[in-house]
Amino acid sequence: xxxxxxxxxxxxxxxxxxxxxxxxxxxxxxxxxxxxxxxxxxxxxxxxxxxxxxxxxxxxxxxxxxxxxxxxxxxxxxxxxxxxxxxxxxxxxxxxxxxxxxxxxxxxxxxxxxxxxxxxxxxxxxxxxxxxxxxxxxxxxxxxxxxxxxxxxxxxxxxxxxxxxxxxxxxxxxxxxxxxxxxxxxxxxxxxxxxxxxxxxxxxxxxxxxxxxxxxxxxxxxxxxxxxxxxxxxxxxxxxxxxxxxxxxxxxxxxxxxxxxxxxxxxxxxxxxxxxxxxxxxxxxxxxxxxxxxxxxxxxxxxxxxxxxxxxxxxxxxxxxxxxxxxxxxxxxxxxxxxxxxxxxxxxxxxxxxxxxxxxxxxxxxxxxxxxxxxxxxxxxxxxxxxxxxxxxxxxxxxxxxxxxxxxxxxxxxxxxxxxxxxxxxxxxxxxxxxxxxxxxxxxxxxxxxxxxxxxxxxxxxxxxxxxxxxxxxxxxxxxxxxxxxxxxxxxxxxxxxxxxxxxxxxxxxxxxxxxxxxxxxxxxxxxxxxxxxxxxxxxxxxxxxxxxxxxxxxxxxxxxxxxxxxxxxxxxxxxxxxxxxxxxxxxxxxxxxxxxxxxxxxxxxxxxxxxxxxxxxxxxxxxxxxxxxx
Amino acid sequence: xxxxxxxxxxxxxxxxxxxxxxxxxxxxxxxxxxxxxxxxxxxxxxxxxxxxxxxxxxxxxxxxxxxxxxxxxxxxxxxxxxxxxxxxxxxxxxxxxxxxxxxxxxxxxxxxxxxxxxxxxxxxxxxxxxxxxxxxxxxxxxxxxxxxxxxxxxxxxxxxxxxxxxxxxxxxxxxxxxxxxxxxxxxxxxxxxxxxxxxxxxxxxxxxxxxxxxxxxxxxxxxxxxxxxxxxxxxxxxxxxxxxxxxxxxxxxxxxxxxxxxxxxxxxxxxxxxxxxxxxxxxxxxxxxxxxxxxxxxxxxxxxxxxxxxxxxxxxxxxxxxxxxxxxxxxxxxxxxxxxxxxxxxxxxxxxxxxxxxxxxxxxxxxxxxxxxxx
Amino acid sequence: xxxxxxxxxxxxxxxxxxxxxxxxxxxxxxxxxxxxxxxxxxxxxxxxxxxxxxxxxxxxxxxxxxxxxxxxxxxxxxxxxxxxxxxxxxxxxxxxxxxxxxxxxxxxxxxxxxxxxxxxxxxxxxxxxxxxxxxxxxxxxxxxxxxxxxxxxxxxxxxxxxxxxxxxxxxxxxxxxxxxxxxxxxxxxxxxxxxxxxxxxxxxxxxxxxxxxxxxxxxxxxxxxxxxxxxxxxxxxxxxxxxxxxxxxxxxxxxxxxxxxxx
Lengths: 631, 375, 263
Known about the structure:
- The complex is a heterotrimer of chains A (631), B (375) and C (263).
- With 631 residues, chain A is an all-alpha fold.
- Chain A has 25 helices and two strands.
- Chain A has a two-stranded antiparallel sheet with strand order 1-2.
- In chain B, α4 crosses α7, α8 runs antiparallel to α9 and α9 packs antiparallel against α13.
- Chain B is flat, with a radius of gyration of 28 Å.
- Chains in contact: A-B, A-C, B-C.
- At the B-C interface, loops of B face α2 of C.
């Protein structure tokens, strides 16, 4: 019997069946996850990869228009200004430190008066405006207004800020003078004036011994004038060139689009019209050589200005005092001392760099990639030049994660150990749901709490005199890396806690029994047997927590302070109290505002790719540890 | 045995102090977390509850829940009386007191009126995305737990689920923006310039244009559904696997087809479990801000989503307000002052109550199911 | 060493005296009025059907039952060399160090072989390398494992075979130089060859330690034990030198059990 003649057994099925269709339906839904992941990667890459050529062109324009040339001088000028600012801050920190008591007394008195003025401004202004409008002084309405004002004054006086540096009598006198103040009076209360005068006098007294330093600083400040004038002059010229080049780019792009559209046009007439449009859009080639030659003529002037600046600044190190008595002043002085040699070295090299700079050095694609990965500036929407350097964002994200993990690891793992090893049944029944419930709080709510509650509390705490020794205190910005880190720690504690507790739970009971039978005490069993056995599981928990922290958006967007700058590490650990921006935050903040398809838009997608890669790497490592921890 | 007396200790057990210290330290850390969490809730309840609840019947400020969101006007009248009115009442006031001078006027965007718009928007987004995610997620889970054998395809699916679960929500936002807002196909007669690809459809003017759905309810739902899909799949698969193998064997042994066995002997028993874990997923969907920022949410909108629509399908194509985005706007986009606090704390309080009741509900349900469904 | 002496007054010095011991999990009694003197430097086997309380009794001797919530001794006492081990001022860790225990399922820690053996030394704060090395070697020799593992002391203990793991657990237990070794069905999960090795080991160890072994296998009891106690339903039915118990049981229940017609 040949094969084709074979009669199918009656149990066997052939061809299409409903069962197969159902199975295929479910399989295709499972395959959907792969499709989504592939789509995510594909579209991130599609939007992101165009960034590098676009950025390369921007950097090229930056060079051929001469902006880069101007920046050679400008960077030194900026360094000079910053140095000058640090030195001046040191000078004033010294003086203000010496008359700290007068300063605080004056500030506190002024703060009391300001608090009062703010709270009673509405009723006060109402009376004044009515009086100005010529209302009768004895009218009923004015009396009501006065009553209202008296009430708001009483309310304001009941809630004045504390004045730890004023004596009780002084405070009473101040309040008295405010309470009895005429509505029309424009003068400050006498105590405020007197304390301000005292402060000014103290300032003057303490400034006298520093007259020498003042002179040095003034000379230093003045040294930059020539270069500054030159730079502003060149800036105008190169900006014009840049705009011309960009306008040319736009026209060229329009033309290409029109030509492409003409190719698809339906009727010959429409094609003709499009081609004609394209013809008009053909830009006259932007003249870059002319302005560049003009710019190159300034080279000698630039070099000369640098030489002058260098000469004027040469003595600055010797002109500074050996030490200053106030800690903040001394710190700033040290910062300046450290920065001066680099500044002088840059000045020394500047003439050579300016001399060697050429506008026609090609900009390779690697330069764009390098500038993205190692750039210290993320400047967008500026009039001068946009830079897309990832470092400030990356550093911000990492520092916030570091703070968060430093808090969340001890807290989360500690809580897991406590609940798993030591807590009673009742404690477990209370603690576990509470910590799991934290996980359900939406991140935007946490961010909200961070802004309105936590940041303010932290700033108030940092202003206690007794805490002045803490580095970075008193904090300048209530929204900073530390605040964001604390909130993210709170967010990641449930993740770390739950997973670490699972890991501890999965350690076989036989280990604990064996350890007990060998004479180990409770904590010896926990710390020498159970925790080491659960270690890779705990590590995975921490890594997954880290993944969550780095990928979190809303909290950092609301609470990190959003300043795109690498924190100033010269203040040591105080760098963690400065505001910062993050990889996630920058996407959330800027994506809504950028033109589609622009270099900036694409840069945000590259940040997204980076974020995706980082988090995926962390999670993959974590899952490796998880599979290792199966007992 | 030499010296059996050494079994008897003198004084406290060895290492007692250390033991105590470790315990106290760990307990202190643990309770610190609990206390911080409690303080947070107390703070929000303290500031938020007065906004929502009133001392008079019906004890709830329905206006805050049911009014539209408006700009808040704060001003003094000539008597020095301070008024806080939402924009609509403000214009009424001005009409009423024509000619009266108004002093110290300040306006606060988004701070007046109620929050019905954001509440409705969040509900629509949540329902839409959960419907999508449950449909696709449960189907995928059925395949994984009932049909799948070891194969490269299954391996790839599991890897994809694992990776999708770890992707940060802002990356989902980027994905949703570039795919659902800008690239998915629509049928239209007037394709946009930015369309990636235009395919003719051979009836009328209509073409299939890959130009995306714009920022709209459906783009937001699709993005959120993609984000929550791995959670739903994992949870559903777990529930399906919890149904004893014997149920399936019994059904198959009686001649049921595989699908009949699943439909009658597996799905009914796993649905409670699937629904419980989806409740937890809802809290996540409702709370996410980053994925909807660019795909669906809008800060201010005059009409409720279903008002002023040309046809019902436009509901899906329109932008909506959303509670988390509203809170973000209130917290970050407008200057804080005592007049914005009502809107801020009130929204946060309502939102937290919503999320808390969902997650509390799922906890209760889970506990109840655990005791009920045992085999 | 099996003796034919009449049972009631065993002249051997008793290492463990159990008197009228009653034990309960919550309200459920598990042991009732057990009175038993376990002689020093002998092997005593506890036999009986499943759930008869033999493991519970064994686990009372080093008070490892304290780990189980709701488990407590309701009456009676256990004395080890004259010390009541249920006194409130007993040093529990010291007790467990002096009364080693080996479990039914081998349970080495997920550490190296070496670290497993010196675990109890590290617990008592001994970290001197030479001392640890010496103890590890002695203990592994005593457990007849040294030759098999001496070249891979620092590899993972979980990589050993089942019998090796169980002998490692014995080495770990004797590293703290106990006086008494409790073994809870140490061969239950092992193949016959590994079982034989452990039984040989028991004969060696008896010279130094008082050994109490719970076993399901009557053959094992006859092969190893000097004395055997038969328990049923939480009561001690009969306790006599092994051969006597098996050959001429006094109690009909014992007879039924040893002849295999039990239950």
